[in-house]
């Protein structure tokens, strides 16, 4: 937690690649290639010794190449979705966020509950491999716990966290362009994380992170729910599958942080998907960032 009136500005560039989609049973299929690039601007500010607020503004630039594009022009009803899976880069601001956290306890370990609100920055296309997001407002509730290890491992720490994200219902996505929108359906997501790290030198640190995400709600599975009982396409489930998929993913990553000066810090992370269901399988996710404290 930053002190009162203290905080940091940060900028992080991430690139990740997916060449496989996973089905409900965990099997995977090639579908082409998605390259997703994100530049995120972050602000973290201490309101007091226990309260802090954070803001995140990601700008994305994505590209899909392959023989299985999402083409909204092929759906049997009018819509204002653009065709983005044309092998070209498409960019724009994604979902902005603002969060508030509170340091509830310091003994026997740190306990920090938090809440965050996510809002799409504009009315972007969501039916696309190269989409900027799922175009849903969301409320996230969670808690982090952790502490430094006792002697003689006092240079190492552990941290665990859980976040539950309540996504916007499909009912609230309705407007005249989508006459066949599904009934009031909502898929929320729970994410459990576990991190170990420590100081290698006074300026250099390293960490390992494991993250598991699971979905809950009246959603759909791929590809079984993309067809009606008579075998015809279920266009509602297909068109809104990114909002409705009951995904499961497990990811691992490792990273380092280097303190350039008293105010500036560099960071680097590399990770990938270990297993998944109803989700993109990310071959790699790499990021580099710099932050300045004040």
Strand content: over 45%
Count of helical stretches:
2
| Structural domains: how many | 1
Class per helix and strand makeup: mainly beta
How much helix is in the residues?
A: under 10%
Overall pLDDT confidence: 93
SSE string, helices as H and strands as E: EEEEEEEEEEHHEEE
Q: What's the CATH architecture name?
A: Beta Barrel
Low-confidence stretches: 174-179
CATH fold-type name: Lipocalin
The CATH superfamily bears the name Autotransporter beta-domain
Radius of gyration: 21 Å
Structure report:
The chain is mainly beta. It has one domain: Beta Barrel (Lipocalin). Helix content is 3%, strand content 55%. It has helices spanning 235-239, 241-244; strands spanning 7-22, 28-46, 51-65, 90-93, 95-102, 110-120, 138-148, 156-167, 187-199, 204-217, 248-259, 264-277, 280-293. Strand 2 (28-46) and strand 3 form a beta hairpin. Mean pLDDT is 93; it is low at 174-179.
Keywords:
294 residues; mainly beta; Lipocalin
How would you concisely characterize the structure shown here?
With 294 residues, the protein is mostly beta strands. The chain is 3% helix and 55% strand. It has a single domain, classed as Lipocalin, CATH 2.40.128.130.
């Amino acid at each position: 937690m930053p002190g009162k009136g203290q905080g940091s500005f940060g900028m992080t560039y991430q690139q990740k690649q997916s060449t496989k989609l996973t089905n409900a049973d965990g099997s995977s299929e090639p579908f082409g290639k998605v390259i997703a690039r994100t530049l995120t601007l972050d602000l973290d500010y201490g309101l007091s010794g226990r309260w802090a607020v954070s803001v995140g503004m990601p700008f994305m630039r994505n590209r899909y190449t392959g023989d299985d594009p999402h083409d909204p022009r092929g759906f049997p009803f009018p819509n204002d979705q653009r065709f983005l899976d044309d092998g070209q880069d498409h960019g724009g601001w994604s979902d902005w966020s603002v969060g508030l956290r509170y340091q509830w306890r310091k003994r026997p370990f740190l306990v920090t509950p938090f809440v965050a609100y996510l809002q799409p920055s504009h009315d972007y296309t969501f039916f696309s491999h190269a989409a900027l997001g799922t175009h849903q407002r969301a409320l996230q509730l969670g808690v982090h716990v952790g502490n430094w290890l006792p002697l003689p491992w006092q240079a190492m720490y552990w941290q665990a966290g859980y976040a539950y994200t309540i996504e916007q219902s499909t009912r609230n996505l309705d407007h005249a362009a989508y006459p066949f929108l599904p009934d009031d359906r909502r898929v929320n997501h729970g994410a459990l994380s576990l991190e170990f790290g420590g100081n290698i030198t006074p300026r250099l640190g390293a960490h390992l992170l494991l993250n598991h995400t699971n979905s809950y709600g009246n959603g759909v599975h791929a590809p079984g729910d993309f067809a009606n009982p008579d075998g015809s396409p279920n266009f509602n489930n297909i068109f809104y599958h990114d909002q409705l998929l009951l995904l499961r993913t497990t990811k691992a990553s490792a990273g380092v942080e280097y303190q350039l000066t008293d105010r500036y810090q560099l960071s680097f992370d590399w990770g990938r998907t270990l297993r998944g269901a109803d989700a993109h399988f990310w071959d790699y996710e790499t990021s580099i960032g710099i932050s300045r404290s004040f």
